Amino acid sequence: MDDSLAKWLGSVQARAGGLAPSEASVVHLLLEDPLFVGSATTAQVAARAGVSAPSVVRAARALGLGGFADLKLEIARARGTTDFFDPSPALGPDATTRTIIEASARAGHDALTALSGALDADALDAAVEAVLRAGQVVAFGAGPSATVAADAVFRLRVLGARTAGITDHESAMIAMRLLRPGDVVLLVSSTGRTATTLAVADAAASSEATLVAITNQYGTPLTDLAGIVLAVGGAPLTEQMAAAGSRIAHLAVLDALAAAIAIRDPDRRRRAQYAGIDLPDLG
């Protein structure tokens, strides 16, 4: 447990005196397992605490909050997860539109600069060979990374790879169990620690599929599972702007992967050209 969450739980404990037994049960659960409370519904918390749903709401109000939703928000703030949706700390409340534009552009520029030095050419070659040999490719990403996974499906399908994108976690877990050795799972995660992505990766690994991770850094749970790691060298994600820069870098990795496949296999390149003959002018 990190210090900020531990400090917040200390403040909860200081306000927990004199509660009714049902409310005390909820607070005891909160102190014991704050991550569960932060992700659960009112009914789930009530069931685990052995109280009624209204007791959960009353417990939150007894702590000085407006209700259960406010309690979950306080947990998220203490964990720092709400920071992801905030503007960059470098942008004050009086930031001009021009300053915001420049900061956004700089995040993308910095991410691409890091990518050019971080991406391992041998790893990219290995990913190309894996896709060329694959019976099928499945792409998965959670949250913002889902858009990168969707782009991977488009780019690789055009090049003749039998590619699918799966957006919901349950369907992805089922699909992973049905993979065969030699199939490829392309996993996108900036942090390399997203719980749903890690569960998908673990299921894919048990099927002996080849895991290709597009991520920011080595030394994460995802890179421990992946057979091929395409790391872009992005900074740890503490803010939304950093996440946007990571997505730009991840998309550039896909551009490099698709270009390398087209160059290594001229027949796939011709098939891609044929696939686009009916498209309107995209310029």
- Using only C-alpha atoms, the radius of gyration works out to 23 Å
Strand content: 5-15%
CATH level 3 topology of the largest domain: Rossmann fold
Number of strands: 5
Order of helices and strands, N to C? HHHHHHHHEHEHEHEHEHH
State the end-to-end CA separation.
Answer: 51 Å
Task: Give an overview in words.
This is Transcriptional regulator, RpiR family. Keywords: DNA-binding, Transcription, Transcription regulation. It comes from Actinacidiphila guanduensis. It holds the Pfam family SIS. The protein has 283 residues and is an alpha/beta fold. It has helices at 3-14, 21-32, 34-39, 42-49, 53-62, 68-79, 97-118, 121-133, 145-158, 169-177, 195-206, 221-225, 240-264, 266-275; strands spanning 137-141, 163-165, 184-189, 210-215, 228-231. The model has no long low-confidence stretch (mean pLDDT 87). Strands 2-1-3-4-5 form a five-stranded parallel β-sheet. Helix content is 60%, strand content 8%. Helix 12 (221-225) links the parallel strand 4 (210-215) and strand 5 (228-231). The protein has 14 helices and five strands. The protein folds into two domains: 3-82, Orthogonal Bundle (Arc Repressor Mutant, subunit A), CATH 1.10.10; 97-275, Glucose-6-phosphate isomerase like protein, domain 1 (Rossmann fold), CATH 3.40.50.10490.
